[in-house]
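Re: the 98-residue chain
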Amino acid sequence: MPLTKSAKKKLKKDKTRTLENKKIKNLFKSVVKKAQKSKTEKAVRDAIKLIDKVAKKNIIHKNKAARLKSRLSKLVNKKVSKKSSAPKAAKTRKTKTK
């Protein structure tokens, strides 16, 4: 238990910060899971926004944030590439002129 008045204040402040961080972290986890499941562009965009905010507040490490953002963007890119995987036209060779 804290003894000094300032230590008591700090303990009180730490408890409120811990609660706020837990709320944000739980929201962050649920949004990321939703984005991974649905794989829609809007869900991924919202998740990336929240990941940036959480990393800025040092709730998660910046490298973890970068890794999660990369994985989410890969999911969207795969989905987009599957839709637009039409056969491409063959490239023609150009001859050099002298």
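The mean pLDDT is 90.
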